[in-house]
């Protein structure tokens, strides 16, 4: 566990965590909750990245995707916005993790509250969340782009630069 002093005025929960803990934003992952057609899904991407919702919908075999309403994300996960963890959610949600998760020996995700991150091996994160990991060869289903970005479950927040999430 890696605690840090959370600043309620922080514009980006994930960037705040990376900075406060002295970590690369590529190793700290944010948890986003989206509604793909009518079901909620979790996407886990580096805080240095963003999520393109049209590509997420296509990758999930759906027609449309939108960020979940904060109350829906909180109800489904059991966590507050800004502290949503991909681990131990109240409801089992389909989860996709960005392919870059395997680029390091250790990654960081929210531990279920603002101001607390947990470190774990990428393989453990994938196993514990039963996630689909990005497939870099499926270029037609890349989830990159400037549109529809959200931060650490804060579905109304503006977020960060582009990342790639490809689902197999």
Keywords:
alpha/beta, 19% helix, 168 residues
Low-confidence stretches: 135-168
CATH superfamily: YbaK/aminoacyl-tRNA synthetase-associated domain
Number of strands: 8
Quaternary structure: single chain
Strands, helices and their partners?
Elements: E1 2-3, H1 13-21, E2 29-36, E3 39-46, H2 53-59, E4 65-67, H3 70-77, E5 95-97, E6 107-113, E7 116-120, H4 122-129, E8 132-133
Parallel strand pairs: 3-5, 5-8
Antiparallel strand pairs: 1-7, 2-3, 2-4, 6-7
Structure, explained:
The chain has 168 residues and is α/β, with parallel strands linked by helices. It has one domain: YbaK/aminoacyl-tRNA synthetase-associated domain (YbaK protein). The chain is 19% helix and 23% strand. It has 4 helices and 8 strands, in the order βαββαβαβββαβ. A 5-stranded mixed β-sheet has the order 4-2-3-5-8. Strands 1-7-6 form a 3-stranded antiparallel β-sheet. The radius of gyration is 14 Å and the shape is globular.
Give a quick rundown of the structure.
This protein has 168 residues and is an alpha/beta fold. The chain contains 4 helices and 8 strands. Residues 135-168 have low confidence and may be disordered.
């Amino acid at each position: 566990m890696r605690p840090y002093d959370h600043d309620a005025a922080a514009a980006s929960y994930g960037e705040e965590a990376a900075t406060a803990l002295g970590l690369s934003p590529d190793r700290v992952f944010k948890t986003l909750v989206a509604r793909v057609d009518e079901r909620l899904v979790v996407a886990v991407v580096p805080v240095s990245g963003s999520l393109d919702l049209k590509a997420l919908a296509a990758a999930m075999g759906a027609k449309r995707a939108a960020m979940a309403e904060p109350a829906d994300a909180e109800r489904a996960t059991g966590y507050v916005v800004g502290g949503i963890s991909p681990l131990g959610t109240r409801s089992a949600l389909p989860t996709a993790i960005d392919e870059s998760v395997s680029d390091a020996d250790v990654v960081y995700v929210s531990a279920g509250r603002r101001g607390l991150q947990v470190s774990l091996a990428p393989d453990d994160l994938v196993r514990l969340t039963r996630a689909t990991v990005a497939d870099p060869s499926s270029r037609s289903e890349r989830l990159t782009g400037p549109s529809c970005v959200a931060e650490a479950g804060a579905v109304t927040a503006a977020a960060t630069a582009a990342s790639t999430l490809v689902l197999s």
